[in-house]
Structure formats: C-alpha cells, structure tokens
C-alpha cells in the first residue's frame, strides 16, 4: 500500500501550494499589512510552518478518511494480486523444472513446457499492466476528492492561525533544517481534520473495474 500512497502524495503537496498565494493576498487576522518596499512592491507579513504529509497515511495516527480510502483499494484489489501471485508461483515452478531437466528430458516435452512458460509470462505481464491501470484509476476515484478537501482544510487551518507559508518537509528532505519544532503543525492539523471529518465521511465510489 505504501507504493500506492506515494504515487498520490504529490497531489497533496500541489494542493498546499495554494496556501502561499491564498494567504498572502490578505493580511492575517490581527496583523497590519506591511508597508510597500522600495519600488512599490508589497511584502506579505506572516508566519512560516512545516507539515509532514507522509504522516497523513499513518494507519494509527493519520487522516482517517485517507487511510480508509486506501484500505478500501487494498481490499478491492487483493483478489487480483492473489491471482497474479498464483500465476507467478506456477511460472517459477515451471521454469525451475525446465532448468533442472533440460539435460535429460524429451526435447519435445521440454519445448512444450517452454511454450507454456512463455504463455504464463505473457499472461502475468498483461494482468499486471491491466491491474495497474485499474488500480491507478480506483485510487484517484477514492483519494482524489479527499486530497482536494485536505488541501482546502489545510489552507483554512493555516490562514486562521496567521500562517502565510507551509513547507511540506516530506518533500524537502535534506533541504529544510528545522530548529524549532513548535512550527510543526502536522499533528494539530491531523487532529483538527479528523475531528471535523470522520472516516465514515469518506466517499465510497462504486468500483468500476
């Protein structure tokens, strides 16, 4: 499931980009707009914060709606994964048999097994490709609306606290050095979002596979 999530975490970071633009178009509550700098360019005044969007998918402490969506995808696609794994097991066993008997087996029988292995390999590849396309589509159906809602909620959360810019440290490893953990709003935002948006509110769009 980790690989599935990582594919779509970029969407969450993209949604956060709206915070900077949105928060800087108006002064934060209780703040006086900064005076224009030389050249007539207004410099926005506000606070910085960091967030770790990788924490959103933590099964125990993450965003419940997002976790529920990924768990739904996991359940729906388990039969496909099991089927492909069964085919792989058959292919590996057949390949091992061919390799271990190639010096003594009847050549026609060996050729027939080789053809069977080739067909299995082709079938596995096709099912993997079809499954990945269906998986990507289903993940987008279930998590896309949740990520959009998270982006809007985070923008509101930051703005009401006078935050103008939020850095996603999960995308900036080795770039940002945090020396004051008090600017980390990850846990506070997750708790606030979960309180306002129970997991049962997650959209359960019908599977179309």
What Rg do the Cα atoms give?
25 Å
Distance between the termini: 18 Å
Task: Kindly state the percentage of residues in helix.
Answer: 55-70%
Q: What ranges have pLDDT less than 50 throughout 5 or more consecutive residues?
A: 2-38, 201-205
The sequence of SSEs as H and E is HEHHEH
Mean pLDDT: 80
Query: Structural class of the secondary elements?
Result: mainly alpha
Name the overall outline. Answer: elongated
User: How many H/I helices?
Assistant: 4
Characterize the main sheet. Answer: 2 strands, parallel
Q: How many strand segments?
A: 2
Strand content: 5-15%
For the biggest β-sheet, the strand order reads: 1-2
Count of structural domains: 1
Fold blueprint:
Layout: H1 2-24, E1 47-51, H2 64-101, H3 107-159, E2 163-168, H4 186-196
Parallel strand pairs: 1-2
Helix pairs in contact: 1-3, 2-3
Can you put this structure into words, describing what you see?
This protein is mainly α. The chain has one domain. 60% of the residues lie in helices and 5% in strands. It contains 4 helices and 2 strands; from the N terminus they run αβααβα. Strands 1-2 form a two-stranded parallel sheet. Helix 1 runs parallel beside helix 3 and helix 2 packs antiparallel against helix 3. It is elongated, with a radius of gyration of 25 Å. Residues 2-38 and 201-205 have low confidence and may be disordered.
């Amino acid at each position: 499931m980790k690989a599935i999530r990582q594919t779509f975490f970029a969407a969450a970071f993209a949604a956060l980009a709206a915070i900077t633009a949105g928060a800087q178009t108006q002064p934060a509550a209780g703040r006086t707009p900064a005076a224009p700098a030389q050249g007539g360019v207004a410099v926005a005044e506000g606070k910085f914060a960091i967030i770790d969007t990788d924490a959103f998918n933590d099964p125990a402490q993450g965003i419940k709606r997002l976790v529920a969506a990924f768990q739904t995808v996991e359940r729906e696609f388990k039969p496909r994964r099991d089927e492909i794994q069964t085919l792989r097991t058959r292919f590996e066993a057949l390949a091992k048999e061919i390799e271990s008997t190639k010096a003594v087996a009847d050549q026609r029988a060996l050729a027939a097994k080789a053809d069977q292995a080739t067909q299995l390999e082709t079938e596995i590849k096709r099912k993997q490709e079809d499954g990945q396309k269906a998986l990507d589509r289903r993940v987008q159906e279930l998590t896309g609306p949740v990520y959009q809602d998270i982006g809007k909620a985070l923008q509101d959360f930051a703005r009401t606290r006078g935050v103008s810019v939020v850095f996603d440290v999960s995308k900036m490893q080795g770039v940002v050095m945090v020396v004051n953990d008090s600017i980390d709003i990850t846990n506070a935002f997750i708790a606030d979002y979960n309180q306002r948006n129970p997991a049962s509110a997650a959209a359960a769009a019908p599977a179309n596979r």
